[in-house]
Write a structure and sequence with these properties.
Layout lengths: L4 E2 L10 E4 L10 E5 L2 E2 L2 E6 L7 E5 L8 E5 L8 E6 L3 E6 L5 E6 L6 E6 L6 E7 L4 E7 L7 E5 L7 E6 L5 E5 L7 E5 L6 E6 L7 E6 L4 E6 L8 E5 L6 E6 L8 E2 L5 E4 L16
Parallel strand pairs: 1-4
Antiparallel strand pairs: 2-24, 3-5, 3-23, 5-6, 7-8, 8-9, 9-10, 11-12, 12-13, 13-14, 15-16, 16-17, 17-18, 19-20, 20-21, 21-22
Length: 284
């Protein structure tokens, strides 16, 4: 993974603030949460139809000593807490109102973590570690709710560098390979054996980034910085053939992506950050 982006002070004019909605509509847009790939890392939120309109919730350092590599919402429709994994293997709960972190578990693996997600059908977490020197990636499984992880196996065939992983609404695990940015692949990964099957080559260059699904309709979303010189973009992706459509440009690289499941947490302009009721939702 390349060195993180140096985060410089930004002045943003933002009207979009998150709030609960009981039904999903075209307007307002579903909310997406992300951790920046920067120093320091920050937790942000933005509407999927306008990714440049970010709201910064807070900085994660100095609470987190190593970079967060993946975050996701556990199933159940509570968007007040993200479950995250950092490069050292610390399993963390991240408060979406304050950006406060608390350690809830540990992956004691010999190699650093490169990606993490949660299966919406079971609540199990899946992490991939990466041995850069040997070009080996390993899949681990966390039981629902936390607890000691188990070793699934080496991700085979091939030597992939994962920019992100995400579980579809049916529990199928996908990963985006960034080992060769110009020929990066979308992969389907068997959660029982760690066997990787190529779906297709992405139609864009893949650098650092993240992957997630909207669980209400199976829509796949990809963030990539289009290494080496392209902008950081949000794209809607097809998990059947790895094609994608540009949705907008983000102001900085992102390390993670987590979409409020089913679009039940959406953006409007009449609530304030820190209102707990505005960040919780019960999925019908």
């Amino acid at each position: 993974m390349r060195p993180p982006f140096l985060l410089l002070p930004l002045t943003l004019s933002l009207a979009a603030i998150p709030v609960t909605a009981t039904t999903r509509g075209m307007d307002p847009a579903p909310a997406a949460f992300a951790v920046t790939d920067s120093v320091p890392q920050e937790l942000i939120v933005f509407p999927l139809d306008d990714p440049a309109a970010i709201t910064t919730i807070g900085a994660l350092f100095p609470d987190s000593e190593t970079a967060i590599e993946g975050c996701d919402f556990p199933p159940g429709g509570d968007f007040t807490t993200l479950r995250c994994l950092d490069a050292s293997g610390d399993l963390l709960d991240l408060d979406t109102q304050t950006a406060a972190l608390s350690i809830v578990g540990q992956l004691a693996a010999p190699d650093p973590v490169s990606a993490f997600t949660i299966d919406p059908t079971s609540g199990a977490g899946f992490a991939i570690t990466e041995n850069v020197g040997n070009e080996v990636n390993t899949l681990y499984r966390f039981p629902p709710g936390g607890g000691p992880p188990t070793h699934v196996g080496t991700v085979t065939p091939g030597s992939f560098g994962f920019a992100g992983v995400a579980a579809a609404p049916n529990g199928v695990l996908y990963g985006t390979d960034a080992f060769q940015p110009a020929s990066a692949m979308l992969l389907r990964i068997d959660t029982q054996t760690a066997l990787a099957t190529g779906v297709g080559q992405w139609d864009v260059s893949i650098g650092n980034g993240a992957l997630d699904f909207d669980e209400s309709d199976g829509t796949c979303y990809l963030i990539t910085d289009q290494f080496p010189t392209g902008p950081v973009v949000l794209r809607r992706c097809d998990p059947h053939d790895a094609t994608s459509v540009l949705l907008g440009i983000l102001p900085m690289p992102m390390a993670t992506l987590a979409i409020a499941a089913g679009g039940n947490l959406v953006f409007r302009d009449d609530f304030e950050l820190g209102d707990v009721s505005a960040w919780s939702s019960s999925v019908p």
